[in-house]
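Reading group handout, session on sequence-to-structure problems. Before we discuss, look at one worked example. The prompt was deliberately terse, the way you'd type it at a terminal:

> structure YfaZ family outer membrane protein

The input record follows.
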Amino acid sequence: MQAKNILSSVTLASLLAIAGNTQAFSLSPGAVEANLNNETLQFEVERSFGGNLSLNAGFLYTEEHDAGSATLGQVGFQGVETDNRTYRAAIGARAYFYSTPDSDTGSALAFGGLFYHVIPGAQRLSAGGYGWIAPKVTSFGSTEQFYEAGGRVAYRVIQNTDVFAGYRYTYLKRDDGFDESFESGPHLGFRINF
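And the output record:
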């Protein structure tokens, strides 16, 4: 029942983000992103508003664990800086909500940011990474620690669409014994800026 409530909340937040306001590689009104590998699918939506402020929401589903599937939802708020041609950077916070393979649920408030830069001499190619960490003090319920880190190389195939190859590592520690990667591995994806 708690997992359904979490999924409903994340779905609602995603719809609000779509209806509301993003950071794209160039700061545009919005972006939709999806990535996957053989065991994981992730979807994310971003909207910008109020100048350099950004709201994003996302959902991740993984079958990486032998014990069953796991889900992770997030809603974030960030300050964004970009010059629309060479780089994009953001710092802010994300609220994460998860369900483990054993149907344990929890949440955490993580802080961090991202940085992507066009590779000099290759205007369509960019690279960068991100990191978000929630220490014990901002991890709630049975959650003791949570963090997500990753990187990617992207290629702009047409004016508003990037394709990318990336790697993500998401770690979760709970006081009931779960102390391992929540989801990790390489993935391929696309990002549409609108």
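Points for discussion. First: The longest helix spans residues 2-19. Second: Residues 5 and 61 are 16 Å apart (CA to CA).
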